[in-house]
Write a structure and sequence with these properties.
Structural class: alpha+beta
Number of helices: 8
CATH class of the largest domain: Alpha Beta
Order of helices and strands: EEHEEEHHEEHEHEEEEHEHEEEHE
CATH topology of the largest domain: D-amino Acid Aminotransferase, Chain A, domain 2
CATH superfamily of the largest domain: D-amino Acid Aminotransferase, subunit A, domain 2
Number of strands: 17
GO molecular function, one term: L-leucine-2-oxoglutarate transaminase activity
Largest sheet: 9 strands, mixed
Distance between the termini: 25 Å
Protein name: Branched-chain-amino-acid aminotransferase
Strand content: 25-35%
Helix content: 25-40%
Function: Acts on leucine, isoleucine and valine.
Cofactor: pyridoxal 5'-phosphate
CATH architecture of the largest domain: Alpha-Beta Barrel
Catalytic activity: L-leucine + 2-oxoglutarate = 4-methyl-2-oxopentanoate + L-glutamate; L-isoleucine + 2-oxoglutarate = (S)-3-methyl-2-oxopentanoate + L-glutamate; L-valine + 2-oxoglutarate = 3-methyl-2-oxobutanoate + L-glutamate
Shape: globular
Radius of gyration: 19 Å
């Protein structure tokens, strides 16, 4: 579905609400040429107590932190960005939506150094359903191990959610789709499992849960952290600094992705090898249920994770 088919008409940009089609930047903006932007993906859920943004504070923490390696000082404080986001959701009468804050170096000069360029900030919100397909949450997805490797944290800061870094994600994901798969898995420079193009990954073996650690060049995912906490609350042992080899993917009892867009999505095949019996596993299903009970307001747990619109 294109944006023009959605019931959205407003974007917050540099302190003002503007019409969707008027939210424009200069073609010589630094961020366009060099990928010098940072962004977040956040979901607002239609809970039984009304629309609520999930883990907004943690997303804001990462948003500001992502700018630091690039000497990017975001020219709006937390309260301004929070109120802008709340008002944006209210103005468009959105009950559930995806929220995209982005900050980037704008237009002044086009040298590689961004020091003379202003930092521009925008926030958009729109309805967005299941990221990897309507049946993915129940039936799972088929993935391939990409030939593209994840960049190392010694090459570029992998703990920052940077616009330019997603060229790597795009290459891996499109390679997978050209080969008939829904999504990719990306290995790090050592050949161990890192993550998906836009998701963290979890493995279940013998009732215990494993996920690559931050040293494996992954993004410190907020949904990843949510899954780890929920799993431990449900009595599971979680190894959150694991090193997972490519071969372990094929022999896992269960695999699943986590992410703001993907939520919790089972993986049923890797490189055409079925994971166990090729269906959603019981641990994945239990964690999915716990996650959606939480974010849709059927559970009273973790009220501190919700910012009600």
């Amino acid at each position: 579905m294109g944006f023009d088919e959605m019931d959205v008409d407003t974007i917050w940009m540099d302190g003002e609400f503007v019409d969707w089609e008027d939210a424009q930047i200069h073609v010589l903006s630094h961020g366009l040429h060099y990928g010098t932007g940072v962004f977040e993906g956040v979901r607002c859920y239609d809970t039984e107590d009304g629309p609520a943004i999930f883990r907004w504070d943690e997303h804001l923490d990462r948003f500001y932190a992502s700018g630091k390696p690039y000497d990017m000082e975001i020219p709006f404080d937390r309260e301004e960005l929070t109120e802008a986001t709340m008002e944006l959701v209210r103005r468009q009468d959105l009950e559930s939506c995806y929220i995209r804050p982005v900050a980037f170096y704008g237009y002044d000069s086009l040298g590689v150094s961004p020091k003379d360029n202003p930092v521009q900030v925008a926030i958009a919100a729109w309805p967005w359903g299941t990221y990897l397909g309507d049946e993915a949450l129940e039936k799972g997805v088929d993935v391939m191990v990409s030939s593209w490797r994840k960049h190392a944290s010694s090459q570029i800061p992998t703990n920052a959610k940077t616009t330019g870094l997603y060229v790597n994600s795009m290459l891996a994901g499109e390679e997978a789709r050209r080969n008939g798969y829904t999504e990719a898995i990306v290995l790090n420079k050592e050949g161990n499992v890192a993550e998906g193009p836009g998701e963290n990954i979890f493995m279940v073996n013998d009732g215990e849960i494993y996920t690559p650690g931050l040293s494996e060049s992954i993004l410190d995912g907020i949904t990843r952290n949510t899954v780890i906490e929920l799993a431990r609350e449900h009595g599971y042992t979680v190894h959150d600094q694991a090193s997972i080899s490519r071969g372990e993917l094929n022999t896992a009892d269960e695999l699943f992705f986590s992410g703001t867009a993907a939520e919790i999505t089972p993986i049923r095949k890797v490189d055409n090898v079925e994971i166990d019996d090729g269906t959603r596993g019981p641990v994945t299903e239990e964690l999915q249920q716990a996650f959606f009970d939480l974010v849709e307001g059927r559970s009273d747990d973790h009220e501190e994770w919700f910012s009600y619109v």
